[in-house]
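Z., the sequence and structure:
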Amino acid sequence: MFGSSGEVFVYNKTKETFLAFRVNIADSGLGRLIGLLGRRSLRPDSGVWLFPANAIHTIGMMFSFDVVMIDKDFKVVSVKELVRPFRVILPKLRAESVIELPAHTIFRSRTEVGDELVIDRYEARKIPKPDGAGKVDEVAHGEQTFAAKQVHG
């Protein structure tokens, strides 16, 4: 889907809120197995996206965190807040992947079952514009485009 390296952001399109800006992708067997093991905490605005996955365990974890399960269309099918260490989250049949996020992320973003998420990479791309007076450079970030007017002196 996105490859096994890099980070993505997670945006709740339904609620118009961000869940996280720096989510690591775990799409290999080893990456999913390791997940959050060995970490003492999650940085704010970070997380781990496990796919394919429809269940998780927190055996060996050292902290509580939030869990969002999504289907193939990025619709939320389950939310679990403050999942404590040494727990097992049973499989959700409709879930295709799992996002592990810092505690209280679900509450802050108001995410709930049925919400649609957007998961994408940060990719700045220059969009060429015709030359002219007051040249405008546009840079696209994900699905949004930002324009910055250049002033020549």
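The domain at 7-121 is CATH 2.60.120.1140 (Jelly Rolls). Helices lie at 29-34, 105-109.

Let me know what you think.
H.
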